[in-house]
Amino acid sequence: MFQQLGLIGCGLIGGSFALALRQAGLVKRVVGYSKSPTTTVKARQLGVIDIEAPSALLAASGADLILLAVPVAATEATLRNIREMLKPEVLVMDVGSTKQDVVDAARRSLRDMLGCFVPAHPVAGREVSGVEHADANLFRDRQVILTPLERTQVQHLDRAQAVWEAMGSKVVRMSPEAHDRAFAAVSHLPHLLAFAAMNGVLGQEQGNELLALAGPGFRDFSRIAASDPAMWRDVLLANRQEVLAQSKAFQQALTAMESLIERGDGEALERAIRHASVARAHWRMGTPQSGV
Amino acid sequence: MFQQLGLIGCGLIGGSFALALRQAGLVKRVVGYSKSPTTTVKARQLGVIDIEAPSALLAASGADLILLAVPVAATEATLRNIREMLKPEVLVMDVGSTKQDVVDAARRSLRDMLGCFVPAHPVAGREVSGVEHADANLFRDRQVILTPLERTQVQHLDRAQAVWEAMGSKVVRMSPEAHDRAFAAVSHLPHLLAFAAMNGVLGQEQGNELLALAGPGFRDFSRIAASDPAMWRDVLLANRQEVLAQSKAFQQALTAMESLIERGDGEALERAIRHASVARAHWRMGTPQSGV
């Protein structure tokens, strides 16, 4: 049980965390700060936070649990802002979609308080953003990746795991490097492809008319293209090497299929499609895959 | 009201059409044929068809409405098979995802019966196939594209439109060429990208372990990768020129974003993402887009 959550960033993820923590009966009071004052006001009006703080430092002040829910590029500045308020017994987490850059930022900014910090990535989200979409059940049945540093205190790591599990999440621990490689493949690249697919159509004459004909396949395929631009700019830049490497692997697979189409090699094309289709048909979110 | 539907191909789409037609009170009897006899038996047991036919010809025999729901590459052979049973007053439709090749096949095979044929593409489907997934409401609120030939009889075209509208579909008429260009952009290419994205990950060491970490974004993005391999082999080959042209447009958009990532140009990257994001956030399935 925490006395006070200091929530820095009252968007979809931060707001959902506050609601979920409250729903789990794990917090007495939520003090929130957002860069935009209107967001902080809205968060209080919606009951996501109890008290508006005028700065990240004041949101962190007196908190025994601090959550950074800001675009990953803002992590270092935010940690520096709150650094002087930290005590060894305070648990600090982030929710960033990349972890190597967050870990580096924490190393540079937290110094002797580095042991408080448990880097976290809840594999949840929606294509809409904003506190008005916050949902106490957003993390239920979702995976949360924790990427502790060598200096992270075990007590904080275990408490972090307990918090997420109390919200219904499944916790997985791995290194920041392994995390960033994996999520380049299964999240960052798919977002990049969805953005590029939209732009590829929009760049054509009558692009909007083409889109008007699209059906449910396109709807689902392109859903993530509606994601928050500032957040995804940061993610793609922070994890650029892994993202570009994954894009290369993807383009090789695409080129291979294109040349089968060009050659009219139906048999090999069907084999390539079947390879993808069988794997996807057997895939279940958040469970170890057969063949591992 | 039709006396008898001759259903050739009792899969997801064919089966759903039979159920929807029955639900709309538009047919007395459904005679069905599938290449695989076990499918035909299953279709009867599930109440999708009333009578099993041992051949396409016998399914068509006595029907006043014939639906071809077979992979597009099988269209020509199927039309040749049933050609001798056709009378001018019989309405014949297909449900293929490509239309130029279907129209060409009809021209070659139907000759003086070409006026019976109304090429149709219901923009509906699921990533699962098979008659056991047939659904009387599959076409409700979905667009159906009709691409009549110059020799299509107006009475058949109007009846075709009335049939789909009775199932709750919105009917759009366009030329086969315009259809194939549009669906290369908003359906065929997205499928190709989803297949390639799966294969790009599967081709990596520990590909299955990476997939185990994927979340809801990947789930929706990759759903269409589970689609039927034989059907999509045919679609990608039948519409290869438009698909490859769309793939080129996509790759240009991807390369442009990659170079912004490489250069670390956050401002331009955010602009490119926002371009996609705003368009996708405002997109609504099956409605004219703002900006058209």
Automatic annotation (TrEMBL), chains A, B:
UniProt record, GO biological process: tyrosine biosynthetic process
GO molecular function: NAD+ binding; prephenate dehydrogenase (NAD+) activity; prephenate dehydrogenase (NADP+) activity
Pfam name, any one: PDH_C
Domain Prephenate/arogenate dehydrogenase positions: 3-291
Listed name of the protein: Prephenate dehydrogenase
Keywords associated with the record: Oxidoreductase
Keyword Transcription regulation included in the entry's annotation: no
Coiled coil: none
